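README, section 4: Worked example with a bound small molecule

Sections 1 through 3 covered apo chains. Here we extend the same pipeline to holo records, where the ligand is supplied as SMILES alongside the sequence. The molecule in this example is adenosine-5'-triphosphate. Nothing else about the input changes; the structure line simply encodes the ligand pose together with the chain.
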Amino acid sequence: MFFSGRSPVGLDIGSGFLKAVQLKDTKGGYELELFDTLPLPPELIVDGSIIDSLRLVDSLKELSRKARIKTRDVAISIAGHSSVIIKRVSLPDMSEEELSESIKFEAEQYIPFDIEDVNLDFQILGPKEEPGQMDVILVAVKRDIINEYISVVKEAGFNCQVVDVNSFALENIYEINYEIESDKNTAIVNIGASTINMNILKGGVSVFTRDSAVGSNLHTEVLQREFNLTYEVAERLKRGEPVENVSPQDAMSVMDLASDEIIGEVSRSLEYFHEEINEVILSGGCSLIKEFPRLVAGKIGVETKVMQPFKNIRIPKKFDVTYIEEMAPMAAVAAGLALRRPGDR
Ligand SMILES: Nc1ncnc2c1ncn2[C@@H]1O[C@H](COP(=O)(O)OP(=O)(O)OP(=O)(O)O)[C@@H](O)[C@H]1O
Ligand SMILES: [Mg+2]
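The generated complex, written as structure tokens:
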């Protein structure tokens, strides 16, 4: 996978924050080249759809300036329960070439959208117990959503080299940072502003993915409602900054209500996977909320860690290590995207 030349910038276009990560391939492993974030005004992206593309282009350009991004090539990802379908299915044994040709036909019965409206991709996992069958992961993304993102990214001056999905980016960054234990079921749970991306790995292999439309915007909303605050002030309060007339304790107890709701959704998603989970790895901005990981561990009853996406990545001295360590869990998807190289699968 050694790749000369500049690697693409992993650009995670979330509904709450833009995140950019670039990694350099060195002989000693990956080295951090670039990491930056930019908050987005609310309601530019709703339910995975771009609502205000002009302002999103402006924000992308602003991030590009702020982070001094020199590379034009980017890897982006699409998430969202309404535009991405990932399914593990059983298909008749065939080669990769054969499946490439018949994928549309094979996928049709599994995809709830018109097959003509989606981009399809697949990965053959291997043979199944039943003879003549193989295990395949099917990925279908609505084409109009992909095109929306590609055109915004292009408009902002970038060249979109890779379009990935959040849960795979999370799996990729997890793999380079953590030892795979063959007898362990690990749930990677990325909780952003408006979405949860879940990917369950069984002995390091993805066996279940699910996205839900719930996120840390719930915290912001309860704070706004309870204390009559603007979005911006509520966001500050959520990060633990002092806000006039609201005590941190009051804020915390109101936020716990939202946390309960989010954790309820995580727990329902975990139930769809009918096996025991041994470990939860949290990422996304929601995992930065004080006490949130502890609440997850308590409610779900499973050992819970916050992902360190840069654990095995060398961080040069020019970076503010404290800031990076603090924000790193939010960068998990962008870092996973930054691992992608043109032409790989
Ligand atoms: N330091 C912090 N402390 C607490 N919450 C934070 C902090 N930083 C960000 N958040 C919250 O995390 C969310 C943003 O996280 P993230 O960047 O993972 O989401 P996103 O990718 O933009 O959203 P989504 O993927 O759901 O579209 C916001 O709701 C924000 O308020
Ligand atoms: Mg996100």
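What to look for in the output: The CA atoms of residues 183 and 203 lie 6 Å apart. The domain at 179-310 is CATH 3.30.420.40 (Nucleotidyltransferase; domain 5).

Section 5 describes how to batch many such records.
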